[in-house]
Amino acid sequence: MEDQVADNYDELPLWSAPFGQLILEHVPLKRGQTIVDLGAGTGFLTVELAQRSAAARVIAVDPWAGAMQVLQRKVDYLRLTNVELVIASQLDLPSDSVDLVVSNLGINNFDNPATVLQECYRVLRPGGRLLLSTNLAGHMAEFYAVFREVRPSEALDEHVAHRATVDGTLDLLQQAGFTASVLAQTTFKMRFADGTALLSHYFIRLGFLDGWLAIAGQEALDAVEQELNRRGEVSLTVPAACFEAVKD
Ligand SMILES: C[S@@+](CC[C@H](N)C(=O)[O-])C[C@H]1O[C@@H](n2cnc3c(N)ncnc32)[C@H](O)[C@@H]1O
User: Fold this and answer.
1) Which residue, of 32, 101, 147, 220, has the greatest Cβ tally within 10 A?
2) Ligand 1 centroid distance, CA of 207 (Å)
3) Whole-prediction pTM value?
Protein backbone atom coordinates (compact mmCIF):
# COMPACT_ATOMS: atom_id res chain seq x y z
CA MET A 1 0.00 0.00 0.00
CA GLU A 2 2.74 2.45 0.98
CA ASP A 3 4.59 1.68 -2.29
CA GLN A 4 1.46 2.57 -4.24
CA VAL A 5 1.26 5.95 -2.48
CA ALA A 6 4.88 6.64 -3.42
CA ASP A 7 4.27 5.50 -7.03
CA ASN A 8 1.46 8.01 -7.39
CA TYR A 9 2.88 10.88 -5.31
CA ASP A 10 4.71 12.84 -8.05
CA GLU A 11 1.94 12.68 -10.55
CA LEU A 12 2.44 15.64 -12.85
CA PRO A 13 5.26 17.31 -14.77
CA LEU A 14 6.59 20.31 -12.83
CA TRP A 15 6.40 22.26 -16.12
CA SER A 16 2.63 21.68 -16.26
CA ALA A 17 1.97 22.63 -12.63
CA PRO A 18 1.98 26.47 -12.69
CA PHE A 19 -0.28 26.49 -15.76
CA GLY A 20 -2.59 23.93 -14.18
CA GLN A 21 -2.77 26.04 -11.01
CA LEU A 22 -4.00 28.99 -13.07
CA ILE A 23 -6.85 26.87 -14.39
CA LEU A 24 -7.67 25.35 -10.99
CA GLU A 25 -7.79 28.78 -9.35
CA HIS A 26 -10.41 30.00 -11.83
CA VAL A 27 -12.33 26.99 -13.09
CA PRO A 28 -16.07 27.00 -12.28
CA LEU A 29 -16.62 24.03 -9.94
CA LYS A 30 -20.23 22.93 -9.94
CA ARG A 31 -21.91 19.63 -9.14
CA GLY A 32 -22.73 17.37 -12.03
CA GLN A 33 -20.89 19.15 -14.83
CA THR A 34 -19.75 17.32 -17.94
CA ILE A 35 -16.11 18.35 -18.35
CA VAL A 36 -13.66 17.64 -21.18
CA ASP A 37 -9.90 17.80 -20.50
CA LEU A 38 -8.56 18.34 -24.00
CA GLY A 39 -4.94 17.30 -24.52
CA ALA A 40 -5.08 15.70 -21.07
CA GLY A 41 -1.62 14.10 -21.29
CA THR A 42 -1.11 12.01 -18.16
CA GLY A 43 -4.20 13.72 -16.77
CA PHE A 44 -3.41 15.51 -13.52
CA LEU A 45 -6.13 18.05 -14.35
CA THR A 46 -8.61 15.29 -15.19
CA VAL A 47 -7.91 13.67 -11.82
CA GLU A 48 -8.21 16.97 -9.90
CA LEU A 49 -11.46 17.98 -11.58
CA ALA A 50 -12.97 14.53 -11.14
CA GLN A 51 -12.31 14.81 -7.40
CA ARG A 52 -13.08 18.50 -6.89
CA SER A 53 -16.40 18.53 -8.78
CA ALA A 54 -18.99 16.39 -7.07
CA ALA A 55 -20.99 14.14 -9.41
CA ALA A 56 -19.10 15.38 -12.45
CA ARG A 57 -18.39 13.38 -15.57
CA VAL A 58 -14.84 14.10 -16.76
CA ILE A 59 -13.74 13.02 -20.24
CA ALA A 60 -9.98 13.04 -20.92
CA VAL A 61 -9.11 13.32 -24.62
CA ASP A 62 -5.62 12.85 -26.04
CA PRO A 63 -4.16 10.94 -29.02
CA TRP A 64 -1.12 9.92 -26.90
CA ALA A 65 -1.92 6.31 -25.96
CA GLY A 66 1.03 5.97 -23.52
CA ALA A 67 -0.12 8.98 -21.50
CA MET A 68 -3.68 7.63 -21.40
CA GLN A 69 -2.33 4.35 -19.98
CA VAL A 70 -0.67 6.29 -17.16
CA LEU A 71 -3.90 8.17 -16.53
CA GLN A 72 -5.87 4.90 -16.46
CA ARG A 73 -3.48 3.59 -13.77
CA LYS A 74 -4.09 6.72 -11.66
CA VAL A 75 -7.85 6.51 -12.16
CA ASP A 76 -7.80 2.87 -11.02
CA TYR A 77 -5.56 3.61 -8.02
CA LEU A 78 -7.78 6.52 -6.91
CA ARG A 79 -10.93 4.47 -7.64
CA LEU A 80 -12.46 7.28 -9.66
CA THR A 81 -15.70 6.17 -11.28
CA ASN A 82 -16.49 9.43 -13.06
CA VAL A 83 -13.60 9.55 -15.58
CA GLU A 84 -13.69 8.42 -19.21
CA LEU A 85 -10.58 8.17 -21.36
CA VAL A 86 -10.71 8.79 -25.11
CA ILE A 87 -7.60 8.20 -27.22
CA ALA A 88 -8.27 10.60 -30.10
CA SER A 89 -7.28 13.92 -31.62
CA GLN A 90 -10.86 15.01 -32.21
CA LEU A 91 -13.94 15.48 -30.08
CA ASP A 92 -16.38 12.74 -31.00
CA LEU A 93 -19.14 14.12 -28.77
CA PRO A 94 -22.65 15.42 -29.51
CA SER A 95 -23.13 19.15 -30.06
CA ASP A 96 -24.26 21.20 -27.03
CA SER A 97 -23.45 18.35 -24.62
CA VAL A 98 -20.53 19.68 -22.52
CA ASP A 99 -20.50 22.28 -19.72
CA LEU A 100 -16.78 22.93 -19.53
CA VAL A 101 -13.68 22.27 -21.63
CA VAL A 102 -10.26 22.72 -20.02
CA SER A 103 -6.96 22.54 -21.85
CA ASN A 104 -3.65 22.92 -20.03
CA LEU A 105 -0.80 23.70 -22.43
CA GLY A 106 -2.78 22.21 -25.30
CA ILE A 107 -3.13 25.04 -27.77
CA ASN A 108 0.59 25.31 -28.64
CA ASN A 109 0.61 21.59 -29.37
CA PHE A 110 -2.45 21.23 -31.58
CA ASP A 111 -1.61 20.95 -35.31
CA ASN A 112 -4.80 22.81 -36.21
CA PRO A 113 -5.77 25.01 -33.24
CA ALA A 114 -8.51 26.88 -35.15
CA THR A 115 -10.32 23.62 -36.00
CA VAL A 116 -9.89 22.27 -32.47
CA LEU A 117 -11.38 25.47 -30.99
CA GLN A 118 -14.33 25.29 -33.41
CA GLU A 119 -14.95 21.74 -32.21
CA CYS A 120 -14.83 22.94 -28.59
CA TYR A 121 -17.46 25.54 -29.49
CA ARG A 122 -19.65 22.90 -31.14
CA VAL A 123 -19.63 20.45 -28.19
CA LEU A 124 -20.20 23.12 -25.51
CA ARG A 125 -23.78 23.88 -24.55
CA PRO A 126 -24.87 27.54 -24.72
CA GLY A 127 -23.41 29.21 -21.61
CA GLY A 128 -20.66 26.60 -21.47
CA ARG A 129 -17.04 27.67 -21.27
CA LEU A 130 -13.53 26.80 -22.30
CA LEU A 131 -10.58 27.53 -20.01
CA LEU A 132 -7.18 27.21 -21.59
CA SER A 133 -3.72 27.95 -20.31
CA THR A 134 -0.61 28.56 -22.36
CA ASN A 135 2.88 29.98 -22.20
CA LEU A 136 3.21 33.23 -24.10
CA ALA A 137 5.56 35.18 -26.34
CA GLY A 138 8.46 36.33 -24.18
CA HIS A 139 8.91 32.73 -22.99
CA MET A 140 12.55 32.11 -21.92
CA ALA A 141 13.53 35.53 -23.32
CA GLU A 142 16.89 35.44 -21.49
CA PHE A 143 17.92 32.26 -23.31
CA TYR A 144 16.78 33.50 -26.72
CA ALA A 145 18.64 36.82 -26.22
CA VAL A 146 21.93 34.94 -25.80
CA PHE A 147 21.03 32.58 -28.68
CA ARG A 148 20.42 35.64 -30.90
CA GLU A 149 23.69 37.27 -29.81
CA VAL A 150 25.68 34.11 -30.58
CA ARG A 151 23.85 32.99 -33.76
CA PRO A 152 21.26 35.45 -35.11
CA SER A 153 19.03 33.94 -37.81
CA GLU A 154 15.61 34.29 -39.39
CA ALA A 155 14.81 30.75 -38.27
CA LEU A 156 15.40 31.81 -34.66
CA ASP A 157 13.22 34.92 -35.05
CA GLU A 158 10.45 32.79 -36.58
CA HIS A 159 10.72 30.24 -33.76
CA VAL A 160 10.39 32.97 -31.13
CA ALA A 161 7.56 34.78 -32.96
CA HIS A 162 5.58 31.56 -33.33
CA ARG A 163 4.71 31.54 -29.60
CA ALA A 164 1.15 32.47 -28.56
CA THR A 165 0.34 36.10 -27.76
CA VAL A 166 -2.56 37.39 -25.70
CA ASP A 167 -4.12 39.20 -28.69
CA GLY A 168 -3.53 36.29 -31.07
CA THR A 169 -5.13 33.79 -28.69
CA LEU A 170 -8.13 36.07 -28.06
CA ASP A 171 -8.53 36.43 -31.85
CA LEU A 172 -8.41 32.67 -32.35
CA LEU A 173 -11.07 32.14 -29.66
CA GLN A 174 -13.29 34.89 -31.10
CA GLN A 175 -12.95 33.45 -34.61
CA ALA A 176 -14.24 30.14 -33.24
CA GLY A 177 -17.38 31.98 -32.03
CA PHE A 178 -16.52 32.55 -28.36
CA THR A 179 -16.63 35.67 -26.20
CA ALA A 180 -13.10 35.56 -24.87
CA SER A 181 -11.12 37.21 -22.08
CA VAL A 182 -7.93 36.81 -20.08
CA LEU A 183 -8.68 35.38 -16.62
CA ALA A 184 -5.14 35.50 -15.27
CA GLN A 185 -1.63 36.34 -16.36
CA THR A 186 1.58 35.69 -14.48
CA THR A 187 5.25 34.75 -14.89
CA PHE A 188 7.44 32.16 -13.20
CA LYS A 189 11.17 31.46 -13.26
CA MET A 190 13.13 28.36 -14.22
CA ARG A 191 16.69 28.60 -12.81
CA PHE A 192 19.79 26.61 -13.73
CA ALA A 193 23.39 26.79 -12.48
CA ASP A 194 24.65 27.37 -16.04
CA GLY A 195 24.03 26.59 -19.72
CA THR A 196 25.21 23.01 -19.42
CA ALA A 197 22.69 22.34 -16.65
CA LEU A 198 19.93 23.93 -18.75
CA LEU A 199 20.73 21.96 -21.90
CA SER A 200 21.18 18.66 -20.02
CA HIS A 201 17.92 18.95 -18.08
CA TYR A 202 15.57 16.07 -18.86
CA PHE A 203 12.50 18.22 -19.53
CA ILE A 204 14.41 20.72 -21.67
CA ARG A 205 15.69 17.80 -23.75
CA LEU A 206 12.18 16.35 -23.98
CA GLY A 207 10.28 19.51 -24.80
CA PHE A 208 12.63 22.06 -26.34
CA LEU A 209 16.02 20.79 -27.47
CA ASP A 210 14.93 19.34 -30.84
CA GLY A 211 13.38 22.68 -31.82
CA TRP A 212 16.56 24.55 -30.89
CA LEU A 213 18.74 22.08 -32.79
CA ALA A 214 16.50 22.42 -35.85
CA ILE A 215 17.09 26.19 -35.85
CA ALA A 216 20.87 26.22 -35.78
CA GLY A 217 22.42 22.76 -35.33
CA GLN A 218 24.64 21.24 -32.65
CA GLU A 219 27.71 23.41 -33.20
CA ALA A 220 25.72 26.64 -32.72
CA LEU A 221 23.99 25.25 -29.65
CA ASP A 222 27.40 24.32 -28.21
CA ALA A 223 28.46 27.96 -28.71
CA VAL A 224 25.29 29.16 -26.94
CA GLU A 225 26.03 26.76 -24.08
CA GLN A 226 29.58 28.10 -23.74
CA GLU A 227 28.36 31.69 -23.67
CA LEU A 228 25.73 30.86 -21.05
CA ASN A 229 28.38 29.06 -18.98
CA ARG A 230 30.63 32.10 -19.17
CA ARG A 231 27.82 34.23 -17.71
CA GLY A 232 26.89 31.87 -14.83
CA GLU A 233 23.37 31.24 -13.51
CA VAL A 234 20.62 31.05 -16.10
CA SER A 235 17.24 32.35 -14.90
CA LEU A 236 14.49 32.01 -17.48
CA THR A 237 11.19 33.89 -17.36
CA VAL A 238 8.10 32.00 -18.46
CA PRO A 239 4.99 34.14 -19.02
CA ALA A 240 1.75 32.22 -18.56
CA ALA A 241 -1.90 33.05 -19.13
CA CYS A 242 -5.28 31.48 -18.58
CA PHE A 243 -8.04 32.42 -21.03
CA GLU A 244 -11.78 32.02 -20.64
CA ALA A 245 -14.02 31.59 -23.67
CA VAL A 246 -17.80 31.55 -23.29
CA LYS A 247 -20.31 30.18 -25.81
CA ASP A 248 -23.08 32.79 -25.55
C1 LIG B 1 2.17 19.87 -23.55
S2 LIG B 1 1.13 18.49 -23.49
C3 LIG B 1 0.10 18.93 -22.10
C4 LIG B 1 -0.43 17.73 -21.39
C5 LIG B 1 -1.21 18.03 -20.11
N6 LIG B 1 -2.41 18.81 -20.38
C7 LIG B 1 -0.32 18.72 -19.11
O8 LIG B 1 -0.57 19.90 -18.82
O9 LIG B 1 0.60 18.09 -18.58
C10 LIG B 1 0.04 18.68 -24.88
C11 LIG B 1 -0.87 17.48 -25.10
O12 LIG B 1 -1.73 17.75 -26.22
C13 LIG B 1 -1.96 16.51 -26.88
N14 LIG B 1 -2.54 16.77 -28.21
C15 LIG B 1 -1.90 17.11 -29.37
N16 LIG B 1 -2.81 17.28 -30.37
C17 LIG B 1 -4.04 17.06 -29.83
C18 LIG B 1 -5.37 17.11 -30.34
N19 LIG B 1 -5.65 17.42 -31.61
N20 LIG B 1 -6.39 16.83 -29.50
C21 LIG B 1 -6.15 16.53 -28.20
N22 LIG B 1 -4.92 16.48 -27.66
C23 LIG B 1 -3.87 16.74 -28.47
C24 LIG B 1 -0.58 15.85 -26.86
O25 LIG B 1 -0.64 14.46 -27.10
C26 LIG B 1 -0.11 16.19 -25.44
O27 LIG B 1 -0.48 15.21 -24.50
Assistant:
1) 101
2) 12
3) 0.96
pLDDT range class, residue 1, cuts 50, 70, 90 = low
**Which amino acid residue places its CA nearest to atom 23 of ligand 1?**
39
DSSP 9-78: HS-S-TTTHHHHHHHHHH----TT-EEEEET-TT-HHHHHHHHHSTT-EEEEE-S-HHHHHHHHHHHHHH
- CB atoms inside a 10 Å sphere around CB 87: 14
| Domain CATH code at residue 140 | 3.40.50.150
**For the residues of 129-140, what is the DSSP string, one character each?**
EEEEEEE-TTTT
pLDDT tens-digit series, residues 130-160: 999 999 999 999 999 999 999 999 999 999 9
Count the domains in the chain.
1
The arithmetic mean of pLDDT across residues 59-69, rounded, is: 98
Tell me the best of 62, 68, 118, 208 to mutate to test the pocket of ligand 1, counting ligand atoms within 8 Å of each CB and taking the most: 62
C-beta 67 within 6 A of ligand 1 = yes
Supply the pLDDT for residue 130: 98
Residue 148 Cα to ligand 1 midpoint, Å, equals 29
Range of the domain at 189: 2-246
pLDDT-wise least confident of 3-7, 80-84, 116-120: 3-7
Query: Beta 34-38 vs 234-246: how paired, if at all?
Result: unpaired
Our answer on whether the CB atom of 64 is closer than 6 Å to any ligand 1 atom is yes
